[in-house]
Amino acid sequence: FPSHDMGEFGAALPQVTGLAASLGIEFDDLGSMMAYFTTKGFSASQAATMISGSMNALIKPNESMIAAFEELGVANGEVLINMLGLDGAMQAVAAPGLISFTLKLSTSEL
Questions:
Q1: The dihedral sign for the CA sequence 97, 85, 10, 5
Q2: Rounded to an integer, what distance in angstroms lies between the CA atom of residue 84 and that of residue 96?
Q3: Angle at the Cα of 100 (from 96 to 104), degrees rounded to 5?
Q4: Are 56 and 77 in contact (CB under 8 A)?
Q5: What angle separates helix 77-94 from helix 27-39, to the nearest 10 degrees?
Q6: Predicted confidence (pLDDT) per residue in 16-50, tens digit
Q7: CA gap 2, 24 in Å, rounded
Q8: pLDDT interval class at 109 (50, 70, 90)
Q9: 43-60 pLDDT, tens per residue?
Q10: DSSP annotation of 101
């Protein structure tokens, strides 16, 4: 983890590991996201808070998130996380039209 001590990460990880595990998010993916956010200047605690917020937004969606799920053709955030991983799910809801088109292309080729 760049430029942060392991103690900081050790203290921040419990904020997200339980929810991540319940959603099937691999520890490596979680660690990668934490590391990414810290390279952007956020502390490990801030990164954990952002990741936790993202996971909660996907599993307890507001109206705009529900609309993004509908546009993407998925029932809910857990399905999207299972399909794309947490990072991919976050990107998908940020640009649902583009991701929806990409998902349709990839599934039509199967």
A1: negative
A2: 13
A3: 175
A4: no
A5: 20
A6: 999 999 999 999 989 888 988 889 889 999 999 99
A7: 25
A8: very low
A9: 999 999 999 999 999 999
A10: H
Cα–Cα distance, 48 to 72 (Å, whole number): 26
Q: Is residue 3 a contact partner of residue 38, using CB atoms and an 8 Å limit?
A: yes
Q: pTM of the prediction?
A: 0.77
Find the length of the chain: 110
Quote the tokens at residue 1: 């983890």
User: Considering the chain, what is the average pLDDT of its residues?
Assistant: 83
- Vertex 16: Cα angle to 13 and 21 (nearest 5): 110
In a 10 Å sphere around its CB, with 0-12 CB exposed, 13-18 middle and 19+ buried, how is residue 16 labelled?
A: buried
